[in-house]
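Incident log entry.

Two folding requests arrived from the same account within the same minute. Monitoring flagged them as a possible duplicate submission, but the sequences differ. Recording both here for audit purposes.

Request one:
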Amino acid sequence: MYLIQVQPFQTQVFLYVNPAPTVVPIANIRNAIDGNGAQVAPYATGTNVLIQGQIYGVNRNIDATVANGTKQKFEFTVIDNSTGRNGIVIRSTGTVDIAPVDLLEGNNITVAGTVSQFNGLTQITATSVTRNSTGNARKTPVNATVIAENEESQLIRLTGVTVTTWPSTWTGSGQNANITVGANTYTLRITSASELWNKTVVDVFGSGAALPVNNVTMVGLGGQFDNASPFDSGYQLFVTKISDVTIPPPIIPAISTNAPSTGLDFGSVTKNEVSASQTYKLIGKDLPTTGSNLNVVVTTPNNFQVSKNNTDFFSTISFTNAEINNAGTTGLDVYVRFAPTSDIDGAKGGDITHAVPALVPTLNTNVAVKGIQVAPLSIAEELASQVNIYPNPANGTTIKIDAPQNFSVEMLDITGRKVAEFNSSAPKLSENLPNGLYFLQFSNGTTKFVKRLMIQK
């Protein structure tokens, strides 16, 4: 600014040059506080300053009876690009003429005014506002775990928030709800210009929501309302949009297996014997790890057994929820075998179940198993199964017999007439035997059994 001043009755002209005001980084103003939270030089209360930054949030102090002509009443937050505490509240009581501009989030503005403080909240009481641009993108919120001086007038993100109270009436310029983050309790200040205004808990947090609402993420502006030195309490959060309030999808515990849809088939197994084991993976996620009954119980139908190590088999085993969660998508091995002991031979089967007692309703994912129990062999059948004759059909006078012991053998034709007799270790056939079916009757003195032989020359 240039000022030309001419003194009366003098021929000299004096030129006074007043430099243009300098834009002050907001962080410089915010950091000028003493141990009692009071503003101090060079930005003590009453100091004239000029700042430039972007509007965040909404006008928190709308009053239609004052906002007439060029007199506007407002309170909003401006954040610049300085480092540190780079946000500050801009306020007008509506008694000072302000250029009539739309004060909207995303506007970049220049503000002239004086430094002041209102209930612990550093602010600038505006004397002029100039809009520089519109539609600027919002900066990324700063992740925070508390609301304190560093979070005042900052765009912050709080996670793990619990909403403990909610307004029951919606009158005046704003209402309060209570929120907790960790061990700290803060005020959620809902102004009449916020999208949260006059909304129910269900409107904001979703169908079925009820107090307390847990595990909420909120994005908003840090604030303060503390009328006593050293101004270190009464911290608030101002949330503008419903979209800035989110709840993660509910954690739904789940159990699955990689067993084939047709289940496990063990075929035929003799009573009181066991099959070779088959394996499937037990896969779980988000199973509860606090409380009681924190395990998955695997239970088999009768005649089947399960194991965690393929060595020790039981009708029921259990895995802790934690070890299943820790196994991730790889899962844990479950070994299954068919061990029939029924009094009745034939098909056996059912479902292996997986129960989580801590959950209501209990989660189950079944694996079908089946097998056939057969009667044990007699001694004769067992011996017969160990004897092999070859070639069969025979085409000459020589055959070989593999047997676990030495047997006497009588050879009978289809009429039951004995046509030959020999020892199993040295079988010999007559050249005169016609083609056809013959029966070899083996005997070791106590046990007899029969094997078939075809002759085809």
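Request two (distinct sequence, not a duplicate):
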Amino acid sequence: MTGRVFSKLLLSFVFVLCIATAVLDFSFRNIVAHSLHEEARVASLGPVQQAAALHILRRDLFTASLISLVLAILASALLAHRIAGRLRRIVDFSGRIASGDFTARIEQDGSDEIGEVARALDATASRLEQSFRALDDKQRELAALLDSMQEAVVAVNAAGQVSWSNSVMQRIAPVRPGRSLVVSIRDPEILSCVEAALRERRIGIGRAISVVPGRAFEVSAAPTPDGGAVAVLHDVTEIERAEKTRRDFIANVSHELRTPLTSISGYVETLLEDEMDLTDHAREFMAIILKNARRVNRLTEDLLALAQVESGEHKPRLQPVRASTLVDDAIELLAGMVVESGVALEPGETTDTLVLADVDAMTQVFGNLIENAMKYGASGRRVVVGARALEDAVEFYVQDFGNGMAEEHLNRIFERFYRVDKARSRESGGTGLGLAIVKHIVLAHGGTIRVESELGAGATFLFTLPLAPIAQPAPAPASEELPTKAAR
């Protein structure tokens, strides 16, 4: 490139000098010829002498012009070479920058335009060097941070090839950059989550159990702006083992407590029913013992039920059932309890849409929600139960018109042993597990549950159940004439 610039500059200088020399030579020739003509006329020189003198003058003028041209060409060549050298340094600088060497500098001190360009390029290179050094430091910090994580992290590009992985991922499954993820990891849950992040550009969540034998991982894959995806594997083996141990312990303790509690309740009831002479204080103490024994018995029953639904081992027996049937059955089964409490149980809007539900489990759900509404919404004197059809589900609701609850309780109301009014809950005999059981049963059905409430405006518990699939009509039987025609 600098060679072409040098040639162009040199040719330009030579072309300009040639034109200047030709104009100068033509002008001098006319001036000299006119001067000689005047002198000849004055001095009466002969034509031969005039021609010889003019020839000598032209030769000397041509020689002088030629020498001037050669000197001008040499000066132009030196100047062009100097300019081309400065441009060559700029070209070399650009090549080093393009190859990633941001320490390159031109360092030209000229005050002309080329010097200004060189200084601007040096300043740009300095800023680039600082930016890339800071970026490299950030990348090293990020790599160190990811390597210090307990979770395994792997990043893939848009083609599904591994671009980076941390040290934890290398210990779990030695993936290599540049290779397809499916070559190193064969777990279908991980591949499915990564595929969802790559193709559908959404976060994929799953649970992998075949990456390392005997260990379980929660998988989360998210899309990246460059079209790739990053997957994070969180080892939940110990958490699940501890959770299972806790559930087993609760179930075993609750089961062991049932027999002595039943015996205590039975003996106390027998003593209270006996006509033997008991003092009033003794009967009062017996009644307190019976009340607390029954409460602890309800607590153990709820703990067993919660441990069962939390374990995931109990699968609901789903079957198509009309939403209106579930509402009507709940109101009918709980009518006796409602009469004793003095609260009116009213049906709300319903729908005959078919949902997938375990009827026995839904009886427990409605029972817990209605019992909760009667305990804490009794001041409203009525409870409304209903259902409404949504686009892809049916939403059931149990609404009371009592005092309601503050907003800070809404996100925690379904936690185990959480009570809005602890003193009132103990007086009513509540265990604090009813809503937690309801939540897990609804989630096991593939639904959702939430509560809407304001102080002084009552509370509404709402949960959804998925729609039952529409049965496809059976194909019509083939005509009896077809085999006959085929036989023919």
